[in-house]
Amino acid sequence: MSSLASQLSEILGKAFAAQGLPVELGAVRVSDRPDLCQFQCNGAMAAAKQAKKNPREVAGAVLAALAGAAAIETLEIAGPGFINIDVRDDFLAHHTGEIAREERLGVERYPADTVVLDYGGPNIAKPMHVGHLRASIIGDCLRRLYDYAGYRALGDVHMGDWGTPMGQIISELELRGIMGQPLTMEDLETIYPEASRACKEDASRMELARAATAKLQDGDEQYRKVWQQFIDVSVAGMKANFDALGVHFDLWKGESDVHDLIAQMVEALKSKGLAVEDDGAVVVPVEREGDSKE
Fold first, then answer.
1. pLDDT recorded at residue 111
2. How far is CA 7 from the centre of its chain?
3. How do residues 87-99 score in pLDDT, each as one tens digit?
């Protein structure tokens, strides 16, 4: 079912055509000033040059052609030639009644383009907390709206499952002599914060974590196996929480899923002069003249 604006555009388009003007000039949209009117048409402004008349004169002729239109309660020329429109209550009631009887409630389907929404953002080996609610619920609401509108909407949880925190946990397991032992989410809830705190307090401990991170990301078989274990445990807990919230994800991707793409991306950035070597790291300079911070 077409919208109110579309129906009014058709009505005004005929009135413009009656003046020998293009029907497209009758395009109606929701008013910028709802305190003055419900809808507006700015076609008279665009038609003035073509009609060789003052915009208010064009608007007056259009209003005369609309006399007695069943859908319209009031018409008014505003400013240099805007047409302000209010619809009749019975027309509005009929329109909303028709919408209520439609299976899709008047929502048209759009072309089936693909939209990927990144929401959720939980971290591996850490319990979810109330801060995850906002992104998860808003993101899933958007996914449902896109899906209903006809898009191929994919929700991606985008887990934090890579980098130094993973090395902190693995090195902690090694120090405790429990590498390869079964782990529960309760175990990880204790191990992760203790490992993180130890690394903050002790530079040598952080070096162990960095070394473990490098081995993991270089594909060490034992490290990957241990890492996969606490991913599996964490994801099981996440899914239980998201199911309880009614939040859906089509993709369970994490930062690790793009690891193999990073090197070629860095080389591409370097070849384009966007990334440079600086103090032993590859960086993308973002400094601008006038920045107050380094």
1. 76
2. 31
3. 999 999 999 999 9
